[in-house]
Structure formats: C-alpha cells, structure tokens
C-alpha cells in the first residue's frame, strides 16, 4: 500500500486538529515567550538604573548645566527604570518571540512559503532593530536639541523622568514599526494584493501618505515629521526595488 507524502499527512493532520488543540499548542509557545522575557527582565533588573542613564544621555547632553531631570511622582524613580527594563527585555527577546510565533504557524505553510518566510522574518527583526537604533542615535538627539534650543531664556527645561521615558518608548516603537515597510511591501506583492506597477503609479500618493502619517505619530514639529517621513519613503523604495526582482523571478 502506497504511503502518503509526509507533507500531505502533516497538512491533513493540521486541518483535522480541533481548535482547542491549536490553542493548547499556542499556549505552549506563549509560555516560552513569557518565560524567556521574564528571565531577561530579571537578569537586567540590577542594571535598570544604568540602562536609564543610557536612555537619558541624549537629553542630559542637551540640558543646560543648571538643569536636571526631575521626578514629579514619589514612585517615578522606581517605576521609570522598571518600565524601561521591561521594554529592553522585550526588545532583546524579539528574535526568540518571532521564532516561537514562526514555529507555531510553520506546519501550516507549504514548502515554498517556508523558504520565502524565513528571510522575511530575519529581515523584519533586523529592520526593527535598525529603526530603534536610528531613533536613538539620530532622531532623538536632533529632536531634543530643537526643542531645548527654542525654549525661552526665562524657562529652565527640567524634564520629568516618566514623561521622557514615555516619549522615548513611543519614538522607538514608531521607528521600529515603520522600518518594517520593505517587508510589508514585499508581503503585499507576494500575496498578490498589489503589484510593483500599481505601486509606481500611486507613488506620489504614498509619499504624501508618509508625511501624513508621520505628522500624527511624531511630536508636533516639522523636524520630527521629516525625520520619519523621509526614511518611510526610502524604505518604501527599497521594498519596491526588491519587489521588482521578485516579480522578474516569478516571470522567469
């Protein structure tokens, strides 16, 4: 009696698997994600104050000699480094988190889809880290310098540590997510929702959309908007370039 190919058996077993069984498998991966994140969190906990000093370094370099950071809440000196420590743990655990989610959906994919998904996953992780690094080393110092330089001479800038943390985390997440534009563009082309030709025809609307989105997700100044909109545009062009290569390979 002929045996079915292993891929066919695996696909049929996945299709016949009840929803509750899927949830049980997903729970296993979620437990691993939470476990690794908590492990990194507790490992980084002794360095939480040093981590916050690194985060506040761009601001402290811009502040006048007579100004310092302040805490307007009694618990802020503990909670701000605590929240930052959790964020850093999540960022460091991101490759493991992506891998676990990938392991969950991988059995449901065909072999061709798996080969395409692996470089997309690696690229998305790399681009997320690049976005956070760009926000910290380039965007954040420029924005802080702009805001402090335009403050009135009679006002001494003293930033609350909780407010500064929220500002930075929002900035990091925005840039980390927007740097995923090439991956999103390629996925849309792969699934056939758009083509490179249609994207080229709508390029001017997409550029306007980049500036429109950055206007709402960045601080209310032109510098922040431009520093996000221009990378969004360039990243879209990168995704479009690789999309053309992908379509040529398909045609071949």
Which tags fit this structure?
252 residues; disordered N terminus
Structural account:
This protein has helices at residues 6-16, 19-44, 48-62, 76-92, 94-105, 111-149, 161-178, 181-190, 196-201, 203-217, 222-251. The chain is an all-alpha fold and 252 residues long. The longest helix has 39 residues, at 111-149. The chain contains eleven helices and no strands.
- What oligomeric state is this? single chain
Q: Provide a count of the helices.
A: 11
The total beta strand count reads: 0
Net shape: flat
Structural class: mainly alpha
Radius of gyration, CA atoms, in whole angstroms: 23 Å
Mean residue pLDDT: 84
Largest sheet properties: none
SSE series: HHHHHHHHHHH
Query: Kindly, what is the distance between the CA atoms of the first and last residues, rounded to a whole number of angstroms?
Result: 39 Å
Share of residues in strands? under 5%
Uncertain residue ranges: 1-14
- Helix content bin: over 70%
Family: Belongs to the TatC family.
Transmembrane segments: 29-47, 86-105, 117-144, 164-191, 203-219, 225-246
Keywords: Cell membrane, Membrane, Protein transport, Translocation, Transmembrane, Transmembrane helix, Transport
Membrane topology: Multi-pass membrane protein
Can you give me a brief rundown of this structure?
With 252 residues, this protein is mainly α. It is 79% helix and 0% strand. The N terminus is likely disordered.
Layout of secondary structure:
Layout: H1 6-16, H2 19-44, H3 48-62, H4 76-92, H5 94-105, H6 111-149, H7 161-178, H8 181-190, H9 196-201, H10 203-217, H11 222-251
Helix pairs in contact: 2-4, 2-5, 3-4, 3-6, 4-7, 6-7, 6-11, 8-11, 10-11
């Amino acid at each position: 009696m002929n045996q079915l190919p292993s891929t066919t058996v695996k696909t049929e077993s996945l299709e016949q698997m009840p929803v509750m069984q899927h949830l049980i498998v997903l729970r296993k991966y979620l437990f691993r994600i939470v476990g690794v994140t908590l492990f990194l969190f507790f490992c980084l906990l002794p360095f939480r104050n040093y981590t916050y000093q690194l985060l506040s370094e761009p601001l402290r370099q811009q502040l006048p000699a007579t100004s310092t950071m302040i805490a307007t809440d009694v618990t802020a000196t503990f909670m701000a480094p605590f929240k930052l420590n959790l964020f850093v743990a999540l960022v460091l655990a991101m490759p493991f988190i992506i891998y676990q989610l990938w392991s969950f959906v991988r059995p449901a994919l065909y072999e061709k889809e798996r080969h395409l998904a692996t470089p997309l996953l690696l690229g998305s992780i790399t681009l997320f880290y690049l976005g956070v690094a760009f926000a910290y080393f380039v965007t954040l110092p420029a924005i802080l310098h702009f805001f402090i330089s335009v403050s009135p001479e009679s006002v001494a800038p003293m930033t609350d540590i909780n407010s500064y943390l929220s500002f930075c985390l929002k900035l990091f997440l925005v840039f980390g997510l927007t740097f995923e534009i090439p991956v999103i563009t390629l996925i849309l082309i792969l699934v056939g929702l758009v083509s490179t030709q249609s994207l080229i025809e709508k390029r001017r609307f997409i550029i306007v959309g980049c500036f429109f989105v950055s206007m709402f997700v960045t601080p209310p100044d032109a510098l922040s908007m431009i520093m996000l909109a221009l990378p969004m545009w360039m990243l879209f062009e990168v995704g479009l370039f690789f999309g053309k290569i992908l379509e040529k390979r398909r045609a071949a």
